[in-house]
From TrEMBL:
Gene3D superfamilies: Homeodomain-like, Jelly Rolls. Pfam families: Cupin_2, HTH_18. This is AraC-type DNA-binding protein. One of its GO terms (molecular function) is sequence-specific DNA binding. Keywords: DNA-binding, Transcription, Transcription regulation. Residues 150-248 form the HTH araC/xylS-type domain. It comes from Pseudomonas indica. Regulatory protein of the TOL plasmid xyl operons. XylS activates the xylXYZLTEGFJQKIH operon required for the degradation of toluene, m-xylene and p-xylene.
Length: 251
């Protein structure tokens, strides 16, 4: 282990290994797919992945990802640097997976990422501040619970013919639109609007398979402005036109 803090760029190349120290990976830009001890996670802006010491993990980023990495030194360093926060920090570092950052924590990550993290004083003090912030800030119930996907799916299905906005879905969760967008991307791996489009298209696909409704009527029922727009989306996603899909069903 070299510096406590470092800036790293991840590419599509898969990295798979383990190390004796715990590690925190803070997303700055792009998306980093993580697997820690068999648990999948996605590191994006405003999230951090926790890699416990000695835990096998793999990561890769098809489109590239930039991250701030904290390689945690020894337990003695933790106790000397964090004082009363040390025990809580040790418990945090034993829990693999990703978690969301608060706006204040994200600002601290951004400030450190723009600082000379190769400076030993900045690295040591910055790492201590990050770890203390992760265990020292109480989080609301809305922040600790997962998103209510069943309720979101039901709302999308009920309003499938109407234009939906991120703010409409965010209100169901008691979150701001920006916070909801970040949490949804971290938990689901898609933006909210990409998810809405995927769900609408899948509903249309099921209607094609399960009914004899005209394609134009199905397109309207699932919120597409025209039959051609629905056909283009279906072909792009599933590789078949509505007619070809129905022909395959009959076969």
């Amino acid at each position: 282990m070299n510096s406590i803090l470092s800036l790293r760029h991840y590419s599509h190349d898969l990295i798979a290994h383990s190390h004796e120290h715990a590690q925190l990976v803070f997303g700055l830009s792009g998306t980093l797919d993580f697997d820690v001890a068999g648990r999948g996670a996605r590191v994006v802006r405003q999230t951090v992945a926790v890699v416990p010491a000695g835990t096998h993990h793999a990561c890769g980023s098809p489109s590239g990802s930039h991250c701030l990495v904290l390689d945690v030194p020894t337990e003695d360093w933790l106790r000397q640097s964090l004082g009363r926060h040390a025990d809580a920090s040790l418990r945090l570092l034993d829990l693999p997976g990703a978690r969301l950052l608060s706006p204040a924590q994200s600002q601290l990550v951004g400030w450190l990422a723009a600082s000379p993290v190769n400076d030993d004083v900045i690295a040591r003090q910055g790492a201590a501040l990050l770890l203390a912030s992760l265990v020292g800030e109480p989080r609301s119930l809305a922040e600790t619970q997962r998103l209510p996907m069943a309720a979101l799916d039901a709302h999308i299905d009920r309003h499938v013919t109407h234009p939906l906005q991120v703010a409409d879905l965010a209100r169901l969760c008691g979150l701001s639109a920006a916070r909801f967008h970040a949490r949804f991307l971290a938990e689901v791996g898609q933006t909210p609007m990409d998810y809405v489009r995927s769900r609408r298209l899948n509903l249309g696909r099921q209607l094609l398979l399960d009914s004899h409704l005209p394609v134009g009527e199905i397109a309207a029922r699932v919120g597409y402005a025209s039959q051609s727009a629905f056909t283009a989306a279906l072909s792009r996603t599933y590789g078949v036109t509505p007619r070809e899909l129905r022909d395959k069903r009959r076969e």
